[in-house]
Amino acid sequence: MINPILDAKEAAAALVDAAFQRAVAAGELPDAPLPAYVVEIPADITHGDFAANAAMVGAKALHRAPRQIAQAICGHLELEGSPFQRVEIAGPGFINFFLGPQWFADVVRSVRQRGEDYGRSDYGKGEKIQVEFVSANPTGPMHMGNARGGALGDGLASALDWAGYQVTREFYVNDAGNQVEKFGASLEARYLQLYLGEEAVPFPEDGYHGEDITQRARQFAQLHGDAYVQADSEARKKALVEFALPLNIEKLRTDLERYRITYDVWFRESTLHPDAVNAAIQKLADRGMTYEKEGAIWYKATENGGEKDEVLVRANGIPTYFAADIAYHYNKFAVRGFERVVNVWGADHHGHVARLKGAMDAIGLDGSKLDIVLMQLVRLMKDGQPYKMSKRTGKAISLTDLLEEVPVDAARFFFNMREPNSTLDFDLDLAVEQSSQNPVYYVQYAHARICSILKKLEEEGIQPRACNDQELLALTRPEESALIRCLARFPQEVVDAAKNYDPARLTKYAIQVATDFHKYYNACRVKGECDSLLQARLNLCLATRQVLRNLLSLLKISAPESM
């Protein structure tokens, strides 16, 4: 049972299809194709574990009332050897399937047998997919958007990996272009001010004002003294950037590693200049997608879904950021062979989505293989009020500041609690609270509670062992069935998180597992029961611990054994 829910859905559909054919053969239904239908989990499981709407969607094609179709199908259902023990017709003609006790026993056994691999599947069939996320400019510290994008992108990459894709995590280093020019000018001004005074050296209007710029200029001065004060401006800026940029990139890497994010590839924009950028522009030109106007080279964006045509090379001969972006994505698809590419961007980039996808079509690739996950803003909240300033710097809170205030576990969990396209309120007080009100604490406590049960039983000489069918079939209490149903969902939750690019499904699911376990723990004793029931319930506890451990591991959140 790699995916118990999907397996059961497919079994229900196969039973309906076979019963429909038998009903046709018996002359009870007309010989016409049964339209596509769905097998779903009803909102209220007292109506069944799965429901098929085949009778309703077939009414028009078969010229029969839905209940009549449902009765004909149900009259020919053969449940023997299937996961189901009975079916019912409900409402206008839903065919409701009720799982048998063997299915519940098999789920517990499957979780225990698959262990650390439970939740993994081959849904993605090894498709080569790249997830690019954060990609913060190396000209300053990471902000709250980067913090959310990091947790979201890393969670999504993990879900894709668990769902059977071949995943590459990538950070795009913007170490070329206008922002690096601005970085150099800002560093130059701060360096010269150290020796000539602030009044003598005006700071660039559009420069980077952060304290980190002043710090890098001081470090450069400690190394070189005033040797560059009289140097040529271009040579001075070049030396400053070559000194400061690697330090900033390394700071990005170490900050992200502290956040438990490691990348497979750090791709530098500078490696695209000039050859790859020029080649991409030439490919567009060869396909008739460019024209010259006022000394600049333009891309015909309006012919490929864009709102207006875009400049690729300015009149001064310098390529635009958009030209480099086209070359970068051409490299992803055509050079490195990714079959699908996912970019996690801030919502302020929404205007760039259609034009970049259109550019992929224009250059001869398939823009539909490029998926953009747009992420809304984060509002930090403290004492019920928006919280914007770092006590340490007096500036906007950075990722480093955040991780000094809240545990990494809480940060990663909280940032994945809402869908990417929803604004997120991050409650700093709740993130450090050690109570069931804190969702990550609540989930981790369920794991620790199971470890505590096992430890106490071990102290009494009771060790868990594998159970036979007869023993596992005794897990029939409503709270036991509800917990097993929940554990069965894990592989499908991972698949759904992967295909919908929504890791928030996994934090919601984690809370559900913890909730169902706490209900089970309060309703069903483990200690004090006869050996066979004690062992069956111990196996269910172990299966729950395994799912929580796998789930938290996927999200790179710790699973403590005591709290």
UniProtKB/TrEMBL annotation:
Catalytic activity: tRNA(Arg) + L-arginine + ATP = L-arginyl-tRNA(Arg) + AMP + diphosphate
GO biological process, alphabetically ordered: arginyl-tRNA aminoacylation
Classification via InterPro entries: aa-tRNA-synth_I_CS, Arg-tRNA-ligase, Arg-tRNA-synth_N, Arg-tRNA-synth_N_sf, ArgRS_core, DALR_anticod-bd, Rossmann-like_a/b/a_fold, tRNAsynth_Ia_anticodon-bd
Short motif ('HIGH' region): ranges: 136-146
Domain Arginyl tRNA synthetase N-terminal per the UniProt entry, residue ranges: 10-99
Domain DALR anticodon binding: from-to ranges: 443-563
Single GO cellular component term: cytoplasm
GO MF: arginine-tRNA ligase activity; ATP binding
Stretches that traverse the bilayer: none
Predominant cellular place of this UniProt entry's protein: cytoplasm
Record bears the keyword Manganese: no
A Pfam short name: tRNA-synt_1d
Keywords: Aminoacyl-tRNA synthetase, ATP-binding, Cytoplasm, Ligase, Nucleotide-binding, Protein biosynthesis
Compartments reported by the entry: Cytoplasm
EC number: 6.1.1.19
Keyword Ligase attributed: yes
Highest taxon of source: Bacteria
Quaternary assembly: Monomer.
Protein family per UniProt: Belongs to the class-I aminoacyl-tRNA synthetase family.
Full protein name: Arginine--tRNA ligase
Organism field: Candidatus Anaerotruncus excrementipullorum
